[in-house]
Amino acid sequence: MTTAPNAFSSYPDARGMFGEYGGRFVAETLMPNILALEKAYAAYRDKPEFTEPFEELSRDFIGRPSPLYFAERLTEEFGGAKIWFKRDELNHTGAHKINNCLGQVLLARLMGKTRIIAETGAGQHGVATATVAARFGIPCEVFMGAHDVERQSPNVFRMKLLGAKVHAVTSGRGTLKDAMNEALRDWVTNPDDTFYVIGTVAGPHPYPAMVRDFQSVIGREARAQMLGRIGRLPDAAVACIGGGSNAMGLFHPFLEDESVRLIGVEAAGKGVDTPDHAASLNGGKPGILHGNKTYLLQDDDGQIVEGHSISAGLDYPGIGPEHAFLHDVGRAEYRHATDAEALEMFQICSKLEGIIPALEPAHALARVRDLAKELGKDGVILMNMCGRGDKDVFSVAKALGVEL
Amino acid sequence: MTRLTPTFDRLKSDGKAGFVAYVMAGDPDADTTLAMMTGLAEAGADVIELGVPFTDPMADGPPIQRAALRALDGGMTLRGTLDLVRRFRETDTGTPVVLMGYANPFYAYGFGAFAEAASQAGADGVICVDLPPEEDTELREGLKAQGLSLIRLATPTTDDARLPRVVEDTSGFVYYVSTTGVTGSGVGETAVVSGAVDRVRKAANLPVAVGFGVKTPERAAEIARVADAVVVGSAIVDALNASGVDGALKLAKTLADAAHSAR
Ligand SMILES: Cc1ncc(COP(=O)(O)O)c(C=O)c1O
User: Fold this and answer.
1) Looking at CA atoms only, how far is residue B43 from chain A in angstroms?
2) Which of A207, A313, B40, B126 is the most buried (most CB within 10 A)?
3) Is this complex's ipTM strictly greater than 0.95?
4) Could you give the C-alpha distances from B5 to B31, B43, B121, B151, B207, in angstroms and in order?
5) pLDDT higher than 70, residue A2
């Protein structure tokens, strides 16, 4: 596919920049690694030794393509536009995360790396990485904030079953960003044999572009499926945003379709006007962290502020640089949803559709409700159901005051 | 010209290696840091590296991570750090001070404005861990306009293809990270470090200071035999936390003596 120069889908540039955002802000020790990864990705991405196992395992191991589903009863309930789900929650391991892990672990093998590390928040990326690592018999170590280890204990056990070693990170404040710091520290210490599988469209170039490419299967399939099912594109494509990988994967194939509004939903926690939220675009400003320049939650001194969300997959204080770019140029809109709204949607979707969503896409659903009214009955909304809620039932029960 | 070049010239003509001492600004408060800076200079530190606290110090091991959190919990900021340099200069006009930190606080201040403020405060150079040569244009030009040194890091993974670029815009000295790892982890084999120092010195035509993981006077002396200066951070930071200013300065004195008498 060729893209026009300056087309939205033509980024990043050779320096890994999406407009002003992105780049390679890493310690010198890692620079040679980052450059080698960029080279290897460019060399292998279209070669059969990469594409053949990637396609085969996407189909037979992950279960792609994921279905497109008409959410009839939610459509009725919200009383407006027709709502369709892209069902990436049906993927092996229960979320979109594995699309990216498969790509990165295959690349790691081709690069001759013998050890995999990853950071994880909700544990979904950790589980997906451990799953693919197990499939190939590569040792895997996952860094997870001590706080998240506690609230996502089923995923910790899953990772261990899959043979991964889980490090509970207590450095810093023991959260997802600290887990990422710890993974970077591990990589600095073991630059030769180790491949760092980053779980979202953030980090130094080439990660934001590479992860997006691996996740773009979501939008490519959905676009073709919509055309096949209803003969037209949706009016809006909606996805939740932690670091932004499921959203970028959904958005990217629609970037040049002007009629399709792209809407990302950030986690507003207790509200974007309180200190307890994780809405980097709606409540942060540009800065430099974890290898890229992007919007960050920070104070006036440039110190990073913790994100808060009921969803452990969304409380990252940054956002992928491509979203920062799409936000500034106005190609995508970024809204937000609170913990309370996500909890409400979690229950509504379970009852009406027979789909227990993860808390992350439950955030997206809250804005789908408004949008359904905004667009009216002729409208069509495509939402990425990026994960299932099995992992969340304990924390949701707790939030609702139910004892299990 | 900054205080760095005359300092390294003096060391060279004395036939000695230098001692670079690291302390985290505001750990646990500003007055303690000021006492440390003054005391370190008296104990024989040839250069003071003043850490700028950051919430996410990706290249630091546990001792300096914890020091940064203590400093931030005590309210230290980049502005507060610059104020410390200003106060230090009221009594010490000769010891070079290099600020070492991460990009985001400098970026939030504005790279150019920060360079100007650092110059006015009396700093001599800046090390920014997460700005590789590919990304440091704004800081580099800001510092250059103020006549301050940008000190880049060379590492064991910096191969011959990259090395010229890394040292190209460095002035004052080059900081060689002795090992692949975080601060405080463990210094590389002296023989390997020695070869690397020669390689960097040749490419840069500048003095080379070696750090990351030097903790004892014995190791300091070994490194001092092969490098132009030895940097100690985590050990001093730990000593300060465990036994206060007096304990940290006592350690610093033994390290300084070891470095100065190694050859
Ligand atoms: C189901 C689910 N959705 C979304 C996210 C957030 O990540 P991203 O914004 O990169 O898609 C996570 C992260 O763990 C997740 O598990």
Assistant:
1) 31
2) A313
3) yes
4) 29, 21, 19, 12, 9
5) no
